[in-house]
Structure formats: structure tokens, C-alpha cells
Amino acid sequence: MTESIAVPHLPTARGCPFAPPDGLADIREKNPITRAVFEGGEEAWLFTGYQEVRDLLRDQRFSVRIPRSVHTRDEQPPRPGRGSLLWQDPPTHTADRRLLAKEFTVRRMQSLQPRIQRIVDEHLDRIASLPQPVDLVAEFATPVPSMVISSLFDVPVEQLDAFQDAAAEMMRVDVEPEAVQAAAGRIMFALHQLIQAKRAEPGEDLLSALIAADDPEGVVDDTFLVTAAATLLIAAHDTTACMIGLGTALLLDRPDQVALLRADPSLIGNAVEELLRYLTIGQRGAERVALEDVRYGDVKIKAGEQVVAHALAANFDPAFVPEPERFDITRRPSAHMAFGFGPHQCIGQQLARIELQIVFRSLFERFPTLRLAVPVEELPFRHEMVFYGVHELPVEW
């Protein structure tokens, strides 16, 4: 009689709020590719090893157009049209990414540094005038990336709060699909109006540049622009906001690392890369579906079976980085997968890096005695969201 092998559940509970979920390392050590039961109640393949996740994310025998999400109980994931890189496969994804990548060059992102610095300084000035303690999420981590990405699209200031609220609603995994769809509808409607205004009066913003782009196939219509803008606005705003809030909480919990950064400000680049690796805020893993039968070593994945690439587990693989559980801003920057890997690697990663470097350098220069106003265990962490972070971060100085 053959003994059945128990299928593990994907761990989600964290003993330490800054560490990966308890039990995730055990799964990776036993088998970096295994069947697992996910939060939606279904089984799928789970990839947790660094090399295995890299191989999967660049393997074009897998599609991002999954029939359903194993992380939730939703029957059907969203199916945006052209312009949403998240849900496209080649050749459509390749063509659309090429169009958008022209506007996300390293040179253009670097040219935004003075604008980002001004936005950061204005918010730090405001924080300095507020009574303590201050919620750094509400006053800094959320509005700064919102203003940065919105300035790229020239979104009117009076619409920023509405965009932030709708984006937050769309990133929850514990609400009804109707609520997410309603939030998406509000963003789409506002962007459609903005696009009409840009067609009438073009500016120096990203939308105007896309409208004027060389487009012989006529791909860049209003639907493309709305979808692309919504995807970039939501993804760039929420992910960077999470990294600012969670990254600040981690640094304040590790004063020795902050001391190193103050002693040597040139470590800011290393610090940001280590924060990205260590926190890897995409906490549940990227989903794919096999387009054909695929074999990885002794593992055979059948066509139609779903797989999950767990970047957080991969970034803590000791085969990738020594002592991965040690947070060390002097660590040599590594080829982490906080921005994903392969064709779907984050298109805005250079903007995120520049923004995070300016944010953390400026924050600790302006407030050298910054500290948490409550114990770490009292912070409300975003366990129920797509991207991990903190809902609130009370600080004083």
C-alpha cells in the first residue's frame, strides 16, 4: 500500500512581522517545487526555490492568463484589454511593453529626481509642523508616491484622494468582487476624462507622450490609454507606498542599521536593495498556468495546471544569498526578485528605486531621532492585502 504524501497549505501567518510566513522555509527546503493548498482552497504547484522561481518566470510555456486565482475564491480574474501588461502574453505583451518602455527609460526616470525631492521635502515640512505622534503612512508613505506617479500623468491634485481610495480598495483580497469592480470603474471613468483633456491640450506628461507616440498599427486608442494608465497608477502607487511604510518600520526596529546609514549616506543604494529583497511585499506569489505539459526535473506539470512563483520565498533562499534572514544594508546588492523577473518584470522599477532612495535618505536626514511611537507588535500590518505593509505607522522624534 502506497503511503499518501500530505499536501502542505501555503503558510501566511508571520511570527515576526518583518520575516516571511512561518513554515515557508521548511517547504522550500523539503522541495522547491511542490503541490500546495492555497487560500482559495484549491491545490496548485508552488515554486519557492530561487533558481526554480527564476526559471518559471521566464518560461514562455506558462501564461499569465490564468482561468481563476488560487489565492482567492473569485471565479474569474479581471481581463483588461490592450495596455494592461499584467494580463498579457507574447506577442501582445511584447508589443505593448515596447510602447510603454519608451517612456520609462532610466534617463527619463533620473530626470524626475528634482521633482521627487521637492514632493518629499514638502511633505517632510508638513510633518514637522504636526503634533506628535504622526501617522507616517497617512502623511508621507501614501501621498508621496501618489503625487509622484500622478505628476507623471498630470492628474489634477483634487483627484488624488479619490485615486488613493479606489486603489486601496482594489488591492484588498477580503472584499467582494463587486466592490473591486466599482473601484476600478471610478478610476477608469476619471482617466477617460483626463485623456480627452490631454487630446485637446497636450502637455509634457506621460499620457500626452503616449498619445503622440509613433503608432502605425493604431493600438494606442482611448481604451489602451485608460487601461495602461490605470495599471501603472495603481501598481506604482500602492507598491511604493507599502515599501515606504514597511521599510521605515523595519529600519526603526533595527537602529543599528539606521546608524550605519547615517554614518555613511552612500549606503542608501545598498539599503534600498536590501529592503526590497528582505520585505518583498508581493506576499502571495505570482500566478501562471501551463500552456503545455512541462517537466522540471522529476516534476511533471500538466497543461492547464496552475503554478505560483513565490518571490518572497525565493529571496530568502540560502542558495541565493548567505544568511538570508539577516537584514544588512551593507550587504552587496543582489539579483533579488522583488520586482519580478523575466518578461513581466516591473516596468517602473527604476522609478521606484530612485523614489525610495530619496525618501529614506531625506526622512532620516530631516528627523535623525525618528522613532516608533508604539511597540512593533501593536502596528496594524496589511495581512489582508495583495501587497504587504502597514496600515498605520505612528512615529515621533
TrEMBL record:
InterPro entries: Cyt_P450, Cyt_P450_B, Cyt_P450_CS, Cyt_P450_sf. Keywords: Heme, Iron, Metal-binding, Monooxygenase, Oxidoreductase. Transmembrane segments: none annotated. Residues 68-91 are annotated as: Disordered. Coiled coil: none annotated. The keyword NADP does not apply. The keyword Metal-binding applies. Gene3D superfamilies: Cytochrome P450. CDD domains: CYP105-like (cd11030). It holds the Pfam family p450. PANTHER family: CYTOCHROME P450 YJIB-RELATED, P450, PUTATIVE (EUROFUNG)-RELATED. Belongs to the cytochrome P450 family. This is Cytochrome P450. The lineage of its organism: Bacteria, Bacillati, Actinomycetota, Actinomycetes, Pseudonocardiales.
